[in-house]
Structure formats: C-alpha cells, structure tokens
Amino acid sequence: MVKFTGRNSNKQYMPKTPIKRGFKIWCLVDKQGYLWNFEIYTGKVGEKAEKQLSARVVKQLSQPLQKRNHCLFFDNYFTSYPLMTYLKSKNINACGTVNPTRKFLPALKNDKHLTLGEYDWSIDEKSTSIVKWRDKRIMSLLSIFPNGNYASSKTM
Questions:
Q1: 39: alpha, beta or left? (left if phi > 0; alpha if psi -120 to 50)
Q2: Minimal CA–CA distance to 65: which of 29, 100, 99, 95?
Q3: What Pfam families would the database entry show (predicted)?
Q4: Are 82 and 104 in contact (CB under 8 A)?
C-alpha cells in the first residue's frame, strides 16, 4: 500500500493495515528486492467483486517467469491448491503459507491432536505437499517443490 491522501478513484481503504488509505500495488520482486513486475489495483470492475483475484494477480505477474524454473514465495492470501497446480504446469515452483480451511486440501491431523513441535504432512501424486505443524499456533505450508513421485502422509 502506497500512502495517498488526495482524491483519486483508484485509492483504496484498508482499515486493518498500518497505511489505511492509498494505492494498492501488487509486486513481484526477487530476494534482493529488485522489481520484476507490478500491477496497480484499481478496484472491482462493474458491480460484482472479482472472484479469484489473488490467483489472477499471481498468474499475471508471474508470466515473465514461465518455463524458467523460478521459485515463488507468498502468504496465505495468495496460496491455493488450484493456483499451485497452474504454476506447476508453467514450470514455476512455489511455496506459501495456507489457510487449512481452503478447498481441495488433503485432510491432516486435527489441530487439537498436535502437540508443540509436532507436525503432519501429505504429498499427492502431483508432488504437491502440505505440512501442518504446531509452534505457538498452528502453521500450514503448501509447496510444489520437487518431492519425488509418490503419494503419502506421515505424522511425527
């Protein structure tokens, strides 16, 4: 979010962020902070809110990286199983925290049964893996890094 207090129809309001009003800019940067690609969010088009906004943004920003074997990392706003499948088809590895209530995720051990430091994981036939572990709270991670050609689940 880039702070802006003037008048502009593209200005966004996000009450739960440190910068409440300004321009929302989606960015694709490398580990040194070099900007590869960006998009200024201009709000919804028409009356209806866009579905799968986060997936569209990742797909659009990652187009220059397709078939170049790069790795993307993002937070749970962007992470979903269908997006990971799409990125894998474009030869882009990805990893991100994920909300465990998202659709299409495999069932893992119940949060109540995980003790501090314990984890559960699963890998499907497409080498998409999910790991859930308990630290101070439950954390879940979805990844499409190469894992081998097997499907399994394990609790430690």
A1: beta
A2: 29
A3: DDE_Tnp_1_7
A4: yes
- Complete DSSP assignment for the chain: -EE--S--TT-EE-TTSSS-EEE-EEEEE-TT--EEEEEE----SSSSPPTTHHHHHHHHHTGGGTTTT-EEEE-TTT--HHHHHHHHHTT-EEEEE--TTSTTPPP---GGGPPTT-EEEEE-TTS-EEEEEESSSEEEEEE-S---S--EEEE-
pLDDT tens for each residue of 121-138: 888 887 888 999 998 899
The pLDDT value recorded for residue 66 is: 87
Q: What predicted TM-score, i.e. pTM, was given to this entire model?
A: 0.79
Q: CA torsion angle for 21, 26, 29, 31 (degrees, to 10)? A: 60
Tokens encoding 8 = 């502009």
Q: What long-range pairs does 130-133 form, CB within 8 A, spacing at least 24? A: 130/98, 130/105, 130/106, 132/100, 132/108
Are 90 and 146 spatial neighbours (Cβ–Cβ below 8 Å)?
no
Residue whose C-alpha is closest to residue 86's, from 11, 144, 17, 151: 144
